[in-house]
Design a protein that fits this description.
The chain has 140 residues and is an alpha+beta fold. It has one domain. It has six helices and three strands; from the N terminus they run αααβαααββ. It has a three-stranded mixed β-sheet.
């Protein structure tokens, strides 16, 4: 189904759709291709969205996290280069002792840090581990 593929593919690329997106898409289609339907002003209701999700269990509603467009473009090569440059800096400034001192080891990950705010409920593929929305305003 075209609508299902559109939802899954845009989510995979970091641009997941919210419930209003398919409603607007179908409304635009019905406005451009008039036909008899039960919708007011060709606009789907929340009941249709719920039934759609029931018919297509591969799509679920999830909360997404925002990621900047610049972060979305970071590659493995970029990360390896950063670590290589960091190693050069540490050696060039005689800081090896500082990084080998166990009292200077800190553990930090995203737990407890709100790295990016939630962007609300979006459609995603069932089982997707992480659901991100690329923040279009952060592109450079």
């Amino acid at each position: 189904m075209i609508l299902v593929n559109w939802i899954l593919e845009t989510a995979r690329k970091g641009f997941p759709k919210k419930a209003n997106d398919p409603k607007s898409s179908v409304q635009n289609f019905l406005n451009d291709h008039p036909r008899k339907n039960p919708f007011n002003n060709n606009r789907l209701g929340d009941g249709w969205v719920k039934a759609f999700l029931n018919r297509h269990p591969e799509i679920v509603e999830r909360s997404s996290e925002s990621v900047s467009a610049a972060s979305a473009r970071v590659s493995e090569k970029d990360i390896r280069l950063w670590f290589s440059e960091l190693e050069t800096y540490i050696k060039g400034n005689d800081l090896e002792d500082a990084i080998s001192d166990p009292t200077r080891v800190y553990n930090a990950d995203e737990t407890g840090f709100e790295v990016s705010p939630s962007t609300g409920k979006v459609f995603a593929k069932r089982g997707a581990k992480n659901v991100y929305t690329i923040d279009r305003g952060a592109a450079k």
